[in-house]
UniProtKB/TrEMBL annotation:
Required cofactor names: heme
Gene3D superfamilies assigned to the protein according to its UniProt record, in alphabetical order: Cytochrome P450
Binding site for heme: C403
Native species: Forsythia ovata
Pfam families, A to Z: p450
Name under which the protein is recorded: Cytochrome
Alphabetically ordered keywords of this record: Heme, Iron, Membrane, Metal-binding, Monooxygenase, Oxidoreductase, Signal, Transmembrane, Transmembrane helix
Cellular component terms (Gene Ontology): membrane
Chief subcellular location: membrane
Length: 456
């Protein structure tokens, strides 16, 4: 068929432009890959990456259109290798009314009231507990991962850290490695190991589900996500099967883990490189600590008073979000900006391209947390965009699949930064570089030397 595709270049047969993309994203400055194409073709262009022709959007209105039309014109789409790791009943792969129901169930376990009344106390306790053991050289990325894993396990099934959770985490980390063996997972031993580890994680979680069913028959009920899943009715009436519940839990573990821990680590890296921002952040947290006793848990009001810390988190999400964009598939021919996206084509809504665009964010390539201060939470952007900045800042996506853990992630990040700056001073242990492929991370997992503060 003759369709008016967005302009662009499909590159080499099969490989397309995948190698150019990978080599750009393996550096600290991946922007030229998008900049070059935007300047040649405009903000919506055609390329060919990871084995498929793809319409790439660096345009906020197009991104919004794609995200809001989930289930009508576009649907989420993951390669088979990722779907196998997630499990077929994962929220990320669910569609239609079941997706809607399970998305709101997840939200109901991570909304502000639940965080304020139940989760905040655990977040504060588990962050402190982990930091108690910090001394000398610390691999910050590893520590942040440990914390986010423990927090999710607690929220999902009420387990505190123990030998069982440690073993689960070891297997789980192998699963996570499998997600980043793109573009050719089939040939990778890391991927095969990840699939095996996924089996072990599912087995361990399956045992927990069965045990909890037995407990609930005796009338015992915990207040956690697993309890809510056990109460929920499946699509065909009756409850969910063990397999469905396990897949759902694996997806939640995956979704909140690498994302939040990366932002924790990178916020610290950017603060270290920006002493003025670090000084202002320390001041904000010293004031909070001065109002409280050393051992006193952070309260919701304390969290709400961390306005500069929110700016630091926004800015870190803007310049280095691990989710640089989302893939979708066109469910039918879709007209957009005078072009046609053919049915079945892959679409990539790039969140990062918008966040790094000078038309929406002044000096977009510079880390500047103060930009968020202008109107309490929104950013001071250049005025060349008609859309408000709040609409173009979408680190948690948008539409029916918008991240249900967004508020929870923010609370975890702020509590982590609070204890980090009130308990420790630190210096980088060695030079470490930020890269964006296969995922956003620092090459050496950001090693730092920590020193406990006398007053902590
Ligand atoms: C800084 C941390 C986080 C970032 C940047 C982030 C970002 C995102 C983004 C962009 C999406 C949309 C994906 C899409 O449209 O296909 C998403 C979805 C999701 N996130 Fe998060 N997330 C974070 C933390 C969390 C946490 C802590 C949880 C735990 C509850 C979580 C659970 C989920 C789930 C379950 C989905 C899938 C929603 C669906 O498909 O309906 N995320 N996240």
């Amino acid at each position: 068929r003759k369709l008016h595709l967005p302009p662009g270049n499909l590159g080499l047969p099969f490989l397309g432009e995948t190698l150019q993309l990978i080599s750009a994203y393996k550096t600290e400055n991946p922007e030229p890959f998008i900049d070059d194409r935007v300047s040649k073709y405009g903000t919506v262009f055609t390329t060919h990456v990871f084995g498929e022709p793809t319409v790439f959007s660096a345009d906020p209105d197009t991104n919004r259109f794609i995200l809001q039309n989930e289930g009508r014109l576009f649907e989420s789409s993951y390669p088979g290798s990722i779907s196998n790791l997630l499990g077929r009943h994962s929220l990320l792969l669910m569609r239609g009314s079941l997706h809607k129901r399970m998305h709101s169930l997840t939200m109901s376990f991570a909304n502000s009231c639940i965080i304020r009344d139940h989760l905040l106390v655990d977040i504060d306790r588990l962050v402190r507990l982990n930091m108690e053991a910090w001394t000398g050289r610390v691999l910050l990325m590893e520590e942040a991962k440990k914390i986010t894993f423990q927090l999710t396990v607690k929220q999902l099934m009420s387990f505190d850290p123990c030998e069982w959770t440690e073993n689960l985490m070891k297997e789980y980390m192998l699963v996570i490695e499998g997600f980043f063996t793109i573009p050719l997972p089939i040939f990778s031993t890391t991927y095969r190991r990840a699939i095996q580890a996924r089996g072990k994680v599912a087995e361990a979680l399956g045992l927990v589900v069965r045990e909890r069913r037995r407990e609930s028959e005796k009338g015992e009920r915990k207040n956690d996500m697993l309890a809510a899943l056990l109460d929920e009715e499946g699509d065909g009436g009756g409850g969910f099967s063990d397999e469905e519940i396990v897949d759902f839990m694996v997806a939640l573990l995956v979704a909140g883990y690498e994302t939040t821990s990366t932002i924790m680590t990178l916020a610290v890296k950017f603060l270290t490189e920006n002493p003025c921002a670090l000084a202002e952040l320390k001041e904000e947290h010293a004031e909070i600590r001065a109002r409280k006793g050393e051992a006193e848990t952070l309260q919701w009001d304390d969290y709400k008073s961390m306005s500069f810390t929110q700016c630091v988190v926004n800015e870190t999400l803007r310049v280095a979000n691990i989710i640089s964009g989302v893939f979708r598939r066109a469910m039918r021919d879709v007209s957009i900006k005078g072009y046609t996206i053919p049915k079945g084509w892959q679409v990539f809504a790039s969140l990062r391209a918008v966040h790094m665009d000078h038309n929406h964010f002044k000096d977009a390539r510079t880390f500047n947390p103060w930009r968020w201060q202008a109107n309490s939470g929104s950013s001071s952007s250049s005025s060349s965009s008609s859309s408000s900045v709040i609409n173009v800042f979408t680190p948690f996506g948008g539409g029916p699949r918008r991240c249900p853990g967004a508020e929870l992630a923010r609370v975890e990040l702020l509590v982590f930064l609070h204890h980090m700056v009130t308990r420790f001073s630190w210096v980088p242990a060695e030079q470490d570089k930020l890269v964006f492929f296969p995922t956003t991370r620092t090459q050496k997992r950001y090693p730092i030397i920590v020193e406990r503060r006398d007053d902590s």
